[in-house]
Amino acid sequence: MPQKTETPKKPAIPGPPAAEIAALLDELSISPASNLIGVLQQVQDRFGHLPAGALREISRRMRVPLSRIYGVVSFYAQFYTEPHGRHTIRCCRGTACHVKGAGRVLDAVQRELGVKEGETTPDLAFYLETVACLGTCFLAPAMMIDNLYFGRLTPQRVQSILRSYRTGKS
Length: 170
Description:
The protein has about 170 residues and is of the alpha+beta class. The protein folds into 2 domains: about 20-75, no CATH class; about 85-165, Glutaredoxin (3-Layer(aba) Sandwich), CATH 3.40.30. It is about 40% helix and about 10% strand. The chain has helices at about 20-25, 35-45, 50-60, 65-75, 95-100, 100-115, 155-165, and strands spanning about 85-90, 125-130, 145, 150. It has a 4-stranded mixed beta sheet with strand order 2-1-3-4, with helices on one face. A hairpin with a 2-residue loop joins strand 3 (about 145) and strand 4 (about 150). It is elongated and about 50 Å long. About 20% of the residues are buried. The mean pLDDT is about 90.
């Protein structure tokens, strides 16, 4: 009989304590008349993602079904239900970047951080994603870290940039 292989589960990252969630929602004066998207943006700004406990409490206070809240959260790409890193790295995979070595740049980022696209480093320092185009073809190959652009990248330059972020020199 074939043996089942289980996919390793990510360790659960505890969300903020209920008291911290309640304090934020009290501060925001959440009520049924509140703007749901605005509330979600403010909660995510505070916690870096939308913890399940916060979504349940928003549902209760706004008298909005939890399923509707999850519908909004899953519709908009700006919302995250899992923690993302303090720094978001966006590697361009557009045509100009592809032709000039974007694959090597992405490989270097993944190797340096030990994560794949769509993952967050265990220390919650970085989140890695790829984008169709950063609009900086003249800098190809390019990436962004938060709101800063880095261009004409090589694997060695990527390594140097990421290490400067790790040491706090950026």
